[in-house]
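Input set for joint prediction.
Command: fold jointly, output tokens.
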Amino acid sequence: MLSERRVKELSAFLKPRMSKKRYIHSVNVAYEAVKLARKYGADEDKAFIAGYLHDCAKELDTQEQRRLAEQSEFQTEAVELDTPPLLHSIAGAVVVRNELGIDDRDILEAIRYHTTGAPDLPPLAQIIYLADLISADRDYKDVKKMRKAAYESLDEAMLEALSFAISDDVKKGSYITRTTWAAYNEYIVKNKNSKKK
Ligand SMILES: [Fe+2]
Ligand SMILES: [Fe+2]
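tokens >
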């Protein structure tokens, strides 16, 4: 379990960086991620940290997010760097490493891919992707359905979440990254194979 001191350190870092509303969202994602980690046997402390910090770069100005994203150790797509809503996840992983000295690959990867998803993500990153969608502050039309799916099967919930994200992007005319498509295809195959068994 995370020590009280560690939680205090993290909150001293995070709170001043964001609005009250986003801070509440961050806390909700952290708690949802811990619950999912418990359900699926992932590391609960890492789930808390990644969930809590996932949006830490979101309120930096776009130029700063881009400057940070360019330093990412993870692969990025050129168009991704030109798409402001996608920058904060790439930049967030850089901030967490640079400013908190967190170099745990699972945590960094979960933050980096929480907006786009990616193929072959470990359970922790899937958990953060889903926790961000189903946290207590979310109230879109199908959130109840999504919450139920997340606690039934990670693979099926990821497919549902990615389908939802992709159709929403298409409606808005937004760019869809290659990693999002690849993730979607991965879960199509995985879910088909698991139904055959
Ligand atoms: Fe985010
Ligand atoms: Fe978020």
